[in-house]
Amino acid sequence: MIAKKILIAPSLLSADFSRLGEEVRAIEEAGADWAHIDVMDGVFVPNITVGPLVVRSVRAVTRLFFDVHLMIEDPVKYVDRFADAGSDLITFHMEACPSPADVIRKIKDRGKKAGVSIKPGTDVSVLEGVLGQVDLVLVMTVEPGFGGQSFMEDMLDKVKYLRPRFDGYIQVDGGINRETAPKAAAAGVDVLVAGTAVFGQEDYAKAIRELRGT
Ligand code: DX5
Ligand code: ZN
User: Of 36, 51, 96, 148, which one is least surrounded by beta carbons within 10 A?
Assistant: First the structure.
């Protein structure tokens, strides 16, 4: 079997927001595959970050694939705005909406890739009905809300369960660093989100190479 290339998605949450455009260009030059943008509403999670206006602003300075992680209640209401702003992939939380199929359909109708995410306390079985409809599953490896937390290694059991059942991208988010990245890759993860482990380093290119294991 030929090993698949692991994709690295630096999380802008750990970037210097006073120079956000430069930071996005810097990760693009450093070899990032995607830019991960964390959207928090202060309700679904106890923190507030950015909205469509900021996504649109950074869209103007890069060609990077925009992986938008919605940690918001009632995501269906905001799909159009994030699609208009230039998202390529929109991921929402299963815990945040009563009818995930409607959100997925709305994202797909806009011609975007669709992802679903589960928090650490959510059982992987909730994904059963949607696996055939989405491009990506995001398994949270920390409680969503903040960067810089410790990796919850037991979440990789969810990845191992999903891998033979799902052909799309499996992504993990939270606590990814040089030590935890190889464990996630071995479990079958395709896309590693990393905030601190990229933006907290001097040399972004070196940080990305190390996470990818090359
Ligand atoms: C947490 C966010 C993550 C976060 C990861 O709710 O979804 O994307 O930025 O940060 P690190 O890599 O520092 O754990
Ligand atoms: Zn995220």
Answer: 148
